[in-house]
Amino acid sequence: MKNNDSKYFEVNKETWNKKVSIHSKSEFYNVEGFKKGKTSLNSFELEEVGDVSGKSLLHLQCHFGQDTLSWSRLGAKCTGIDLSDEGIKVAKRLNSELGLNATFIESNLYDVPKKVKGKFDIVFTSYGVIGWLPDLKTWGEIIANKLKNGGVFYLIEFHPIVWMFNYLQTPPKLVYPYQNSDVIYEEYKGTYTNNNADIISREYGWNHGLGEVVTALTNAGMHIEFLHEYEKSPYNVFPEMEKTDDGLFKMKKDQQLFPLLYSIKAIKK
After folding, report:
1. Which residues form the Methyltransferase domain (predicted)?
2. Which of 106, 123, 148, 190 could form a disulfide with 88 if both were Cys (CB 3.0 to 4.6 A apart)?
3. Cα-based distances in Å from 6 to 40, 64, 202
4. Could you confirm whether domain 5-35+42-160+207-268 is CATH 3.30.70.980?
5. What is the rounded average pLDDT of the residues 227-236?
């Protein structure tokens, strides 16, 4: 991580703090349905992570904690971390309201070694997380350090090709390189849950190819059990996507040229 990355994190934290109040009231996150027992987890991660009952789980970049609490409901002993202090406040409130026993810690991902004690059976992270991180080498090392021997790391993420498009244009335009070492800055009105929300999102991000992700994990001493790519997504990430019978979304047939998601399961040796 470079010395000037801290200014990028400060801007991103400010934006995510503003997003929390909008997201926690949005139809997208459906907090009321969640409180009544609806899981926020999707079929991909539920099937691929498997039984978590009795296991310790560290959730990196947890936003305001719905997925963390969903794993907690399934019997895991969970710790969630996030850059946003507002997100952690909401997560703690939900945890208390639902009578669950998750722990939430405000932390930049790169501060996890200092702020999170112990080792875990599972480290989990999902959907829109990699792009906020400038340095995947350190990311991989932190994950490996936080796993017990034989522990599992699971990531499900939007495919790197998805991040090559500029969504501020209609239709989205292919703009960014597949691998991009330079920081990408975007500024736009609203948020992904509400394009008309009264917020200006200012964001710094980085693009990482699959090779970079896999290498970061293997160099840290983990064994890749699988790398899956999917043409469907639980989220409507492109304009004019089609909803499928299983409730997922895919590109129209003549536009289905690349995967929308990938998932990785890695085991600490």
Report:
1. 58-151
2. 106
3. 31, 22, 15
4. no
5. 94
